[in-house]
Design a protein that fits this description.
- With about 350 residues, this protein is an alpha/beta fold.
- The chain has 2 domains: about 5-150 and about 315-345, Medium-chain alcohol dehydrogenases, catalytic domain (Quinone Oxidoreductase, Chain A, domain 1); about 155-290, NAD(P)-binding Rossmann-like Domain (Rossmann fold).
- About 30% of the residues lie in helices and about 30% in strands.
- The protein contains 11 helices and 19 strands.
- Strands 3, 6, 7, 10, 11, 18 and 19 form a 7-stranded mixed β-sheet that branches. It has a 6-stranded parallel β-sheet with strand order 14-13-12-15-16-17, with helices on both faces.
- α4 packs across α5 (about 180-190) and α7 runs parallel beside α8 (about 250-255).
- About 45% of the residues are buried.
């Protein structure tokens, strides 16, 4: 397909503008996707606001966005399983396929991953993208491309719940009720966890968690979080903890309120990348502590969960924006975190 497309380009810190760029041409093993919906991720906001996450530093110009859903409009000559007109969810990370991690199915740990909107790789706040066909997952007729875009953050939540081996009869605590916290809540519920408690300090996010199925919510500013968790678990503590806030205080609270032998999964990144935690307490309780880096082998499972009605990802979204309004959208998501839980950029008609 020849021509140009609208592309949201970050030209400096906290500044994003619409530019015209050539529509990419798909390689033999790629498809060209007309992007229709892109979720605004916390990492996008970090790059927009700070220009870096850890060792990943933005070099301008740069394109944000990695949570995409759209429709295939062109296929490469070697592509057999996807055709023009198929609607797809795009898994944003292309790995080498040859390293020990790829060969053992842990491809999210591949050291040579090329991931949308992770410097220096451009993202998908644009009208079209060429992407490897094997990373474009068809969605069924009863799913929208908005839901397809939300498969990416859902995959993170599902991977966290899988890491915890969460199951029926357990009580879980999720700290942080942003998008990933809410996706973790939905994933825990889908796995049959009997009681889920969500902790945050923003009332709208807690209300959203309650709406999506949280059995109890705790406002950490107004209540003693550890005391309240112990009350809700009859003094036993929880079985599964998922830490999405990236906060030393909430991470410590999880360790202190966990049942002996419990599992805690760390998902959120702290601002500094470091935390001081009560490891002595963790040792005394023989806690199982795990971490999450993105996800692996999740997309088909996540798509099935949404298509079957087990998980309502659209319930996480609070705000919609147009691509033409990208500057206002990103600024609003940064400055109004008390009200905007999850934003989605609508691209095209």
């Amino acid at each position: 397909m020849k021509g140009t497309m609208k592309t949201a380009v970050m030209t400096e810190l906290k500044h994003c503008e619409i530019q015209q760029r050539p529509i990419p041409e798909p390689k033999d093993d790629e498809v060209l996707v007309k992007v229709e919906n892109v979720g605004v991720c916390g990492s996008d906001l970090h790059y927009y606001e700070s220009g870096r996450i850890g060792n990943f530093i933005v070099e301008y110009p740069f394109v944000l966005g990695h949570e995409a859903g759209g429709t295939v409009v062109e296929v490469g000559r070697n592509v057999k399983k996807i055709k023009v007109g198929d609607r797809v969810a795009l898994e944003p990370g292309k790995t080498c396929g040859k390293c020990e991690f790829c060969k053992t199915g842990r491809y999210n740990l591949c050291p040579d991953v090329v991931f949308f909107a992770t410097p220096p790789v451009d993202g998908v706040f644009q009208e079209y993208v060429a992407h490897e066909a094997d990373l474009c997952f068809k969605i069924p007729d009863n799913m929208s491309t908005e839901e397809a875009a939300l498969i990416e953050p859902l995959a993170v939540g599902m991977h966290a719940a899988n890491q915890a081996e969460a199951h029926l009869g357990q009580t879980a605590v999720v700290t942080g009720s942003g998008c990933i916290g809410l996706m973790s809540l939905l994933s825990l519920k889908a796995r049959g966890v009997s009681k889920v408690i969500v902790v945050d300090v923003i009332e709208k996010r807690l209300a959203q968690a309650k709406k999506l199925g949280a059995d109890y919510v705790i406002n950490g500013k107004e209540e003693n979080t550890i005391q309240r968790i112990m009350e809700l678990t009859d003094g036993k503590g929880f079985d599964v903890g998922i830490e999405t806030a990236g906060n030393q205080l909430t991470a410590s609270q999880l360790i202190q309120s966990a049942k002996k032998g419990a599992t805690i999964v760390f998902v959120g990144y702290s601002a500094s990348g470091e935390m001081t935690l009560p490891i002595g307490t963790a040792l005394d309780k023989e806690l199982i502590m795990k971490t999450v880096f993105r996800y692996r082998n999740i997309y088909p499972m996540a798509i099935d969960a949404v298509a079957s009605g087990k998980i309502d990802v659209k319930g996480v979204v609070t705000d919609y924006f147009k691509l033409d309004d990208i500057q206002e959208a990103l600024t609003a998501c940064v400055e109004d975190k008390a009200n905007i839980v999850k934003g989605v950029i609508k691209i095209g008609d």
